[in-house]
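User: Here's a chain of 163 residues. Predict its fold as tokens.
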Amino acid sequence: MTQIDKQLDHIYHRSRIDAQIAGMIMLVAIMAILGLTIGNKFAPFRLGARMLEPVRYVWVEQEYDWVTEHTLVRSGTFPPVDNKGNIEIREIYPQVVSIVLCLSVLTIAGFIYTCARRQTHLMNQIYADDPDRPYYRPWSEIRVTFWALDAALLFVLLLLFFS
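Assistant: Prediction complete.
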């Protein structure tokens, strides 16, 4: 392998690692934007949430809380007569949507982590026998970046599902 081939391979693997870090940052940003825009539709741990069907909540001013529409209809108080103004209704997604979203995001994050680990190993193997390496960054330093991004992703997911 010539010196130019080594340099090109090294640059290629290094650019892939940078792309994977950027991809992880984009995943965290997309999830944060999703949480800020439609995060109130994901409430898998809310009282009354169902596994396979959406649930509608109605704002009841007298109780100062969201109550399921089903409960109000069953008690004969729908629409709430004590509310001043329009009736506010919020529909949340089924719990299975939140579970699938969470598992999908964690799977994507794990896949990116595994790919970055492999690319780092390949990048560092190119100049393994050369004492004067042009750029050497061990996996122990790169994985800290991914751990920080994973922590941020978990924080965003917690905010998404518990807000």
